[in-house]
Amino acid sequence: MRIRMEFEKGVSVAFVSHLELMKVFAQSARRAHLPVAVTEGFNPRPKLTFSSAVATGMASLAECADLELTQEMEAREVQTRLNAALPSGFIVHRARRLAGKTRSLMALNSHAAYRVRLRFIDARSIPDPERMRSCVVSFLARQDIMLRVERKGKIRDKDLRPGILAMEVRDDDQTVFELLLKAGSEGNVRPEHVMQAFIEWCGLDDVCAMRLEKTMTYGTDSSDQRVPLFEWQEQS
Amino acid sequence: MTTIDQSWWEEVILPQVEKPVRYTGNELNSIVKPHEDMTVRMAYAFPDVYEVGMSHLGTQILYALINARSTWCFERVFCPWVDMQEKMRTHDIALHTLETFTPVREFDLLGFTLQYEMSYTNILSMLDLAGIPLLREERSRQENAWPLVIGGGPCAYNPEPLADFFDLFLIGDAEEVLPALLELFETHRVRHTTRDAFLREAAGLDGLYVPEFYRVSYGPHGNVTRWEPTVPQAPPTVRKALLKRLEDAPFPDRPIVPYMDVIHDRIMLEVLRGCTHGCRFCQAGILYRPVRERSRETLLAQARTLMDATGHEDISLTSLSTADHTQLPGILDGLLEFCPARGVGISLPSLRVDTFSLGMAKKISSVRKTGLTFAPEAGSQRLRDVINKGVCEEDLMTVAEDAFRAGWERLKLYFMIGLPFEQEEDLEDIVRLGNKVLFLGKNIAREIGSKRRISVTLSASSFVPKPFTPFQWCAQDDLETLQDKQRFLRDRVRSRNLVFNYHKAELSHMEAAFARGDRRLGRVLLRAYRLGCAFDGWDERFRFDLWRLAFEECGLQSEDFACRSFQTSDRLPWDFIDCGVGKEWMLREYERARHAVLTPDCREKGCTGCGVCPEFDCRMELQEGDVDAHQNGI
Q: Is the CB of B24 inside 8 Å of chain A's CB atoms?
């Protein structure tokens, strides 16, 4: 049977890489004495899959993972035992049993929401909220937002604009942005790329760093509605 | 130096360095205690990067040992990699611990583990990055201004090259003497005494050496001509600290589980300490005498505890020579009862040719057959007898045949070059042996119809004559000779799938200089550090040219230390330490080496008179074994 989980990778463990995070879950499941199913063959691995790889350095409030067990168990119990075993910084917030065959999390993952805070060297160079908002408006009004990417030795130009579904400045803090971007195997857009382009567009030369946090992982349901990936249901 | 703004550190600095998780801590089972409530605060410094330090079992043992006291805290700090060091220097960030980000210089004690001579420049880097004066003398001028800098571990058995930088050394097992030292520190702190008063009392404890309480002079060829305690509390000889029984000794029951893939990502179960084989080149075999074993029951209970506490996939039975454990078959059988069911594999770090058994190896190998490693150490029987390794070629070939038939494809053989009484034929024999094993493997593979590629790796390290071994009087081969020998072997390894591995002879040469060195090397070390030497043990970082320059500028040569031989009547720089094994015994062993006479294992064939048991009024701690089963090679 399979359990689907929504979990948090906290700020204190943001620099744990995705591969290391997979190891954390495998080890925690072992400590929790959970009957995890393993792959066949020479190198048995726990059957644990994730919706995406959270970048090293980024925290995430809502990631999804599927865990396959060899015995029937209550989702609530799996969640409780796993949480007791996980190192601090990792928390499983929701867990439910999956019925029947489902598509892989990675295939279902369509969008992601991010919160980004810009760090300015000098606080005095932070634009006022009005200016920042109008910058966002003009940024989004662009026909295209090109990014030069190098992959496998080839340099390509990628248009970020179609992948940006929403971008807003926070009312209470104009250095914080909420982004809604395309994710998954097609058209994935990285928040740091969007912000890099925005910083250049807006002429924010004084920005020296940014803090990125993923706030939600989404899937798209059959009526084309965005829904938190954890809640995504197969429609019959 | 500035205190660190966490969010600036996370947003600006960490994203700019390699493997930021080296510096973030927050691992499972790491222990954070509020400093206000602590009576003793100790920082533990491993002078290499995080992933190297966290593979070391000693780190976990000491962490659990000291943190067990509720009012003591023990926090870790590793050597920042070169990129992080640059950031720290640029932004004036002081070296701090992982647990609480506290600057290291605010601790009461700063303990370095001395595992490898070529990590010494990293010790200086870390002191410097911490803002702590490197020289002990300078620190001592300001009462209570700096942490007490202490060192322990195997290299503490020749601490003299580090005497300028350390306040105190801990020699031997730490389990009893380190807490004793900290208790002493506590009482002195409460009474508001001075550093000098504290050190004088510490000097009286077994296993503690305070270098500033001794005056040393050296003769023309490096022998010690004068060794004088300068205070009445400093004993002329420092006896090592010995933990007499391992069975009841504390063990780390909740080891820290790193996020990073460290070199040994597994549970380390210390099954025994010490070794009785008496291989003449092996310093650890002498220093860790007498042999002390943990019982099967204790080990199985510990294994369960550790699996619950960590969730690791593998458990390694750690020791100098695990295959010697009296109860090994029973331990393996016991582990096999619950490990596979929990998805945990069992591994032995290395195998002895004469006690290797296929049955045992089959039990422990996981489905993947990673390579098997053996250490014949010398190519010819004569030279193996000289070093008392005693393995015979027939045994090696039997073991190799068994392994190949069972499906192993890769075999690694460890050798040393530059051994005492070595001749050219011995080197030729290394290649001959390698070829013999390779062809055996190829023939067997063909016979059993396997299509896999058989390979044999010959790994040859340059012998370093270490203190407290029968070869401690010997010189290391000079650099040119070592390089010639490496070339000799390289030229003769011509078969396909016979691989020859070796490390830079210059590195072994420097290691020998420091292993066999004395106080005069303190200046050289300081100079080498100032010239930019760091992470010397890392191939790409080792700067032999800078080391040469450092020696030159101090009016010395590395050959004076690495390649000097001592007279048997000489007083050696490390003679002030009593490791339990007598000098006369080592001399006797040296003579037996000269005539290639074997000395049997004292565990099996009776006492050989090394002296450690009467010296410490103890005996080997051997468990009641399945001796018959062991001998039958189950």
A: yes
CB-based contact A220:A182 (threshold 8 Å):
no
Question: Whose CA is closest to B546, among B559, B530, B562?
Answer: B530
- A30 contacts on B by Cβ (under 8 Å): 307, 311-313, 342-344
- CA–CA dist B215, B483 (Å, integer): 38
Helix (H, G, I), strand (E, B) or coil at B469: coil
For residue A12, what are the contacts with CB-CB under 8 A and spacing of at least 6?
A88, A89, B24, B26
Q: Which residues of B touch A31 (CB under 8 A)?
A: 308-311
- How far CA B433 is from CA of B395, B406, B445, in Å, comes to 12, 21, 18
| Straight-line distance from the first to the last Cα atom of chain A, in angstroms, rounded to the nearest whole number | 20
A6 contact partners, CB below 8 Å, separation of at least 6: A62, A63, A64, A92, A93, A94, A95, A217, A228, A229, A230
Q: The tokens of A58 are what?
A: 């980024």
Amino acid at B586: M
Contacts of residue B27, defined as CB under 8 A and 6 or more positions apart, other chains included, come to A87, B256, B257, B258, B259
> Whole-angstrom Cα distance, residue B356 to residue B374?
9
For A154, A155, A157, B328, the CA distances from A150, given in Å and listed in that order, are 5, 4, 9, 55
d(CA B361, CA B363): 5
Q: Which three-class secondary structure state does DSSP give residue A87?
A: coil
Assess contact for A64 and A230: CB atoms under 8 A.
yes
A18 neighbourhood in chain B, CB within 8 Å: none
Mean pLDDT per block of 10 residues along chain B (634 residues) reads 79 96 96 96 98 95 97 98 97 96 97 98 98 97 94 98 98 97 95 94 97 95 92 97 94 96 85 93 95 96 96 90 88 91 81 69 59 88 94 91 86 95 97 96 90 92 97 97 96 93 95 97 98 96 98 97 94 96 96 96 89 92 67 42
Quick check: ipTM above 0.90?
A: yes
> By the CB < 8 Å criterion, does B18 face chain A?
no
On whether the CB atoms of residues B267 and B307 are closer than 8 A, the answer is: yes
The minimal CB distance from B367 to the residues A42, A208, A209 is found for: A42
Distance CA B313, CA B456 (A): 28
